[in-house]
Amino acid sequence: MKKLSARRRHPLAAVVVLLLALAATGGLYAAFAPAGRAQADDSAQSLTIEEGKKLYEVGCASCHGTGGQGTSDGPSLVGVGAAAVDFQVGTGRMPAQQPGAQVQKKPNIYSQAEIDQLAAYVASLGAGPSVPTKQQYDPAGADVARGGELFRTNCTQCHAFKGVGGALTKGKFAPDLKDVSAKHIYEAMQTGPQNMPSFPDTTLTEQNKKDIIAYVKAINSDQTVSQGGLELGGLGPVSEGLFAWVFGLGALIVVAVWVAARTAKAKKS
Amino acid sequence: MSTTTSNESRSRGKAPAGERLADWADGRLGIYSLAKANLRKIFPDHWSFMLGEVCLYSFIIIILTGVYLTLFFHPSMNEVEYHGSYVPLQGQLMSEAYRSTLNISFDVRGGLLIRQIHHWAALVFLGGMFVHMMRVFFTGAFRKPREINWLFGFLLFVLGMFTGFTGYSLPDDLLSGTGIRFMEGAILSVPIVGTYISFFLFGGEFPGHDFVARFYSIHILLLPGIMLGLVVGHLILVFYHKHTQFAGPGRKNTNVVGMPLMPVYMAKAGGFFFLVFGVIAAIAAIASINPIWTMGPYRPDQVSTGAQPDWYMGFAEGLIRAMPGWEINFWGHTLVLGVFIPLVLFGVVLMVIAAYPFLEAWVTGDKREHHILDRPRNAPTRTAFGVAWITVYMVGLIGGGNDLIATHFHLSINAVTWFVRIAFFVGPVIAFIVTKRICLGLQRRDRDKVLHGRESGIIKRLPHGEFIEVHEPLSQEQMYTLTAHEQYKPVEIGPTVDENGVERKVKGSEKLRAKLSKAYYGEDSQIPKPTVEEYREITSGHGHH
Amino acid sequence: MSSHDISEENLPEQRGAAQGAVRLADEKNPFADPGLPPHEHRRQDVDERAAKRSERVVALLFTVSMLATIAFIAAYVTIPVDKAIYVFPLGHISALNFALGLTLGTALFTIGAGAVHWARTLMSDVELVDERHPIEASPETRAKVHADFQQGAKDSQLGRRKLIRTTMFGALALVPLSGVVLLRDLGTLPGTKLRHTLWSKGKLLVNMNTNQPLRPSDIAVGSLTFAKPEGLEEKSEEFQDEIAKAALMIVRLQPEDIKDKRELEWSHEGIVAYSKICTHVGCPISLYEQQTHHVLCPCHQSTFDLSDGARVIFGPAGHPLPQLRIGVNDEGYLEALGDFEEPVGPAFWERG
């Protein structure tokens, strides 16, 4: 302790304190930030009713109305089709948790059987796109390069070159497409969830969609080869610039300090 | 320049081969007179003096790798179909420029590495110039006699930006094409001549078939040629002026203290070239840069979000993004202020920092040579001005990345844009005031240190119970260093009426200078450094702390 | 820069030089320059073993460099250009790029590190002093140069022979004009090119994705479709120039959601066709939010309201996106009813 107080006035003390404070703030943030999210997760955990309608009445009716006609809190579900339900519930977006710019994906709390029941119920309210079969969305054998061209025409403006997503107005955003299943990508194009426009089969054919899925899987998955090395988030020049400053110039300045520093003197004791 | 000596030549009583070669060269080039002044030239040691070398070396690296890339790159916009080894682009239509860049990346062994070294070195080059320029600015190294060299450096920075921009556009990928499209829009906004310039630059309508070839000759010949000349001039002036140094014992305005070029700085500076090259090569091995294959070939009807230029253009991008959409129509003409104002501001912001040394020289009226650097705190107004300028620059950078900031920090892009709009005006003012206060605080601290010694953190209890903190007196070296800086007195206008009672006209510029001088060196702008009398009074008798 | 009117006493006293020498002698001045501190020896200067160790380190670094260069050549020869490997934490990367970069980086870095270590530990670290000399020439030199110049000027008679002077400056001023004139053929003149696109009455709206003409029934509410004019093929010479102006963005709104009267008039059953080219600086704008009907530009965030005549509601764009008037032909396909009525893309001086 004595040693500590003696060094209190050391020229480097301020730097050390600053570093400690930074580490503490970061640590506190890491400790508390995810806790808020985890708490809310179990709010809808008691859902065990088997049939779609019952599931619907419990999980969905408060916002979408008892007959799916919609309320001020949620849009009408008449005619959205089974594909929309499969996407929204399957990615955990529905039931929505809290108001905000955009409903975000989270761990899905329904089993696939329950989702199917819900989807069947919503589909019965009005005709809409049905859940695609594996044959429809499976990208095997699709034309990746053609998919790339279609992706750049229809998708990159929101989801970016690498499909990592980007900003929309007023806090909304286009999500990262990594780890989104082929089925869900297909359904999203088909139904246009939230502010995403739809790309129905009449304007973007089934084969087009397969090509796009094949391209997304080729460029934005864990298996994607990034020939040049670290991808830096696939964000382009901003992260590259940051990297050049921190690791390029940063490293060079450290080296420069070493080059210019005087060598330690022999102790005269 | 081999210095090996063969036994045979020794036995014949001849000078060593190296010496004979040097004699031969001297007879034709006069190298000895040149070497006399420079071989043992002294360079002071300080890490921040190496920043310019970072720029020089990355420039050399860029030239070396750039020459290699020209061996494989085809600057042509002919449409071709791709049948190379990158599967996700098979059969796509693209320009020859884009295809040859893909080939460099995938089919030329080591081509990707050289491309990445070239691009990383470019980012480091511009970053290095920025930091180097700020070092020169904050230490006052731009003062007489170095104003011209400051301008050379500034020109290098600006030319570097445009060389980088033209290079980034050559592969003709979707990202860089979007940048070119922006440039076309910006040129169109120029009143009266904009449309014509655009048509002349692109050989007709955008995008046309010419710009890659034209940018190519600008990128590899015109701009680097000018830059090379400026670099040489910059270096000659550095040698001629001799390097500046920080104040310290034995370091005077009339000397330079450090290590000789031969051998220490030959080894240090020469070695530093390899260190810089090594670091950049390692970065190119580790981190991907500008993976054009994920961006696809350029088509004017396609775009990606997150479309940003390289960092050095980011601040201009931010100005463009934050500007409100003003447009004035009159007499059948359109004044596109929404684009033109940021374009002008971009130039103005850069010019302000370039012109600063001349403003300061005018305010101080100081015509002496300065070779001792200022500590930033001892020139509070200049330092505050510099920080305010950096703040404007940083706000621009934030604006340039507003979409990524919005997505990564879960903010609204509109809010980020509004922040930039406000911060562009408020930020520099706050930065100026805060920096100045910090500088004055540090000056007070230095003053206290000189007068009272360093606070040691050791608490002692005196016999009568009083606790005091022991202050260690500074060494004479430290005291000299802390009091070595000069302090200007504000310029006075002087009597407006001469002794005969005739009124003298005071020019507006004189009044302005007096005002500025007061702002620079008035009572609120610097803390008087301790005088010998003050020191004596405190140390001689009363008062232990 | 007239500053001669500032009296010298306003300038701070300069320390160093003559004064420094005086102060050095003044023992009572605590702030005087004590002069260069005496040189202290490094371990390597006094201990030959330490020096030997430094020598070995430097030699080791140079040896590592040689080995790294050999490794570089080996990697170049042995690793296939398309081989990918997984390296934690970089991910799947090109083996060749990684190997070449690291070996080259090592080979270079170790040369530099060796040289610097050598300089720092073995070369003399005694600080040397070099005197500076004023940059300005001495008064004699200055006077001599001025006199020489005047003599030269006089000899040339430039001042006396006004006719020569005037015509010479005239000739020198005119001759660069040839160079400027030669630039004329860099490009065609703008003419009205920025005002017209490929769209004209009767041109079908062709789907960008399928290359088929669109029918109103193809386009659902909330969907987004991109179209080009019939007859414009990707392989044609002019494709890039034409699509840069003609690219079209088609959405369908509920007709009752359309607030702008003209927009409704120019639409077909709620289907509206807008230029895809942003009116700010020409990015292909298309971040369409189907619930808000806002479309955002990914480059500079200009936001347009497609339900209200594509009015600018945020960002740097100065005017709305041009709308294309559309209808349906006899065969039930969507067609253009003319060209855009105003120039598409960024504004320019002659736009008006």
UniProtKB/TrEMBL annotation, chain A:
A single GO molecular function term of this UniProt record: iron ion binding
Subunit structure of this chain's protein: The cytochrome bc1 complex is composed of a cytochrome b (QcrB), the Rieske iron-sulfur protein (QcrA) and a diheme cytochrome c (QcrC) subunit.
UniProt-listed PANTHER family: CBB3-TYPE CYTOCHROME C OXIDASE SUBUNIT FIXP (PTHR33751), CYTOCHROME BC1 COMPLEX CYTOCHROME C SUBUNIT (PTHR33751:SF13)
Assigned EC number: 7.1.1.8
Annotated Cytochrome c domain residues: 47-126, 142-220
UniProt binding sites for heme c 2: 155, 158-159
Gene3D superfamilies membership: Cytochrome c-like domain (1.10.760.10)
A Pfam family it matches: Cytochrom_C
Residues where heme c 1 binds: 60, 63-64
Protein's recorded name: Cytochrome bc1 complex cytochrome c subunit
Enzyme class: translocase
Subcellular location as annotated: Cell membrane
Catalytic activity: a quinol + 2 Fe(III)-[cytochrome c](out) = a quinone + 2 Fe(II)-[cytochrome c](out) + 2 H(+)(out)
Primary subcellular site in the record, as a coarse category: membrane
GO cellular component, one term: plasma membrane
Domain of life: Bacteria
Keywords: Cell membrane, Electron transport, Heme, Iron, Membrane, Metal-binding, Repeat, Respiratory chain, Signal, Translocase, Transmembrane, Transmembrane helix, Transport
TrEMBL record, chain B:
Membrane-protein topology: Multi-pass membrane protein
GO molecular function, one term: oxidoreductase activity
Transmembrane segments: 49-73, 119-138, 150-170, 182-203, 215-240, 272-293, 335-359, 379-398, 418-439
Domain Cytochrome b/b6 N-terminal region profile, residue spans: 21-247
EC class name: translocase
Subcellular location: Cell membrane
Enzyme Commission designation: 7.1.1.8
One Pfam family it belongs to: Cytochrom_B_N_2
The protein's required cofactors: heme
InterPro entries linked to this entry: Cyt_b/b6_N (IPR005797), Cytb/b6-like_sf (IPR027387), Di-haem_cyt_TM (IPR016174)
GO terms under cellular component: plasma membrane
Superkingdom to which the source organism belongs: Bacteria
Keywords noted in UniProt: Cell membrane, Electron transport, Heme, Iron, Membrane, Metal-binding, Respiratory chain, Translocase, Transmembrane, Transmembrane helix, Transport
Catalytic activity: a quinol + 2 Fe(III)-[cytochrome c](out) = a quinone + 2 Fe(II)-[cytochrome c](out) + 2 H(+)(out)
GO BP term (any one): respiratory electron transport chain
PANTHER family assigned: CYTOCHROME B
Protein name per Swiss-Prot or TrEMBL: Cytochrome bc1 complex cytochrome b subunit
From TrEMBL, chain C:
GO cellular component: plasma membrane
UniProt cross-references to SUPFAM superfamilies, sorted A to Z: ISP domain
Domain Rieske: from-to ranges: 240-335
Main location: membrane
Signal peptide feature range: none
Ranges of Basic and acidic residues composition bias in the record: 38-49
Transmembrane segments: 57-79, 99-119, 163-183
Presence of keyword Transferase: no
Membrane topology label: Multi-pass membrane protein
Cofactor requirements of the protein: [2Fe-2S] cluster
Keyword annotations of the record: 2Fe-2S, Cell membrane, Disulfide bond, Electron transport, Iron, Iron-sulfur, Membrane, Metal-binding, Oxidoreductase, Respiratory chain, Transmembrane, Transmembrane helix, Transport
PROSITE patterns referenced in this protein's UniProt entry, alphabetically: RIESKE
A GO molecular-function annotation: 2 iron, 2 sulfur cluster binding
Stretch list, region Disordered: 1-49
Domain of life: Bacteria
Location in or out of the cell: Cell membrane
The protein's assembly and partners: The cytochrome bc1 complex is composed of a cytochrome b (QcrB), the Rieske iron-sulfur protein (QcrA) and a diheme cytochrome c (QcrC) subunit.
Function: Iron-sulfur subunit of the cytochrome bc1 complex, an essential component of the respiratory electron transport chain required for ATP synthesis. The bc1 complex catalyzes the oxidation of menaquinol and the reduction of cytochrome c in the respiratory chain. The bc1 complex operates through a Q-cycle mechanism that couples electron transfer to generation of the proton gradient that drives ATP synthesis.
Family of this protein: Belongs to the Rieske iron-sulfur protein family.
Protein name as catalogued: Cytochrome bc1 complex Rieske iron-sulfur subunit
Organism: Streptomyces echinoruber
Gene of this entry: qcrA
